[in-house]
Specification:
Order of helices and strands: HHHEEE
Strand content: 15-25%
Number of strands: 3
Distance between the termini: 92 Å
Shape: rod-shaped
Number of helices: 3
Helix content: 40-55%
Number of domains: 1
């Protein structure tokens, strides 16, 4: 007896591979790439916030003995840190309220595969840091 259904598995995989599996693999690769870029942007934003929070307003410290962040210095430092660590990122805002600095950034990331209609997406990051006073004297214990 001759079987007429020989080769059906091959035809099934010939249809399944380009229609389902390859787009799924492309989506997985795009998602992994974007999440890696987002983690890098978040780390750079946090580092920039910490550097910006270290910009002490010397005038307020000397005249009123108040430890607050210098707004202009924080903005300059945050922009410089982001330019050095993530050159493609844009600093959207640097908010200084007393001793707290909050930085919001964004970056346009091109997708490695052109599977989706959008060839690039915009990722956002936000980080805060606070300026705190140090210790009066080192501990001898």
């Amino acid at each position: 007896m001759i079987r007429l259904d020989r080769g059906q598995v091959l035809a099934f995989y010939a249809v399944l591979l380009p229609v389902v599996l390859l787009p799924l693999a492309a989506y997985a690769a795009d998602a992994a790439f974007v999440s890696t870029q987002a983690a890098g942007l978040q780390a750079a934003t946090a580092q920039a916030a910490e550097a910006a929070a270290q910009q002490v307003d010397v005038g307020a410290l000397r005249s009123r003995s108040v430890l607050i962040v210098d707004s202009l210095g924080a903005r300059v430092m945050a922009t410089r840190e982001m330019r050095d660590s993530e050159p493609g990122a844009i600093v959207d805002s640097v908010e200084v309220v007393g001793s707290r600095v909050t930085i919001t950034t964004r970056e346009t990331v091109g997708l490695p595969f052109n599977f989706l209609p959008a060839q690039a997406i915009v990722i956002h990051a936000r980080a805060s840091a606070r300026l705190v006073g140090g210790y009066d004297s080192p501990s001898s214990r």
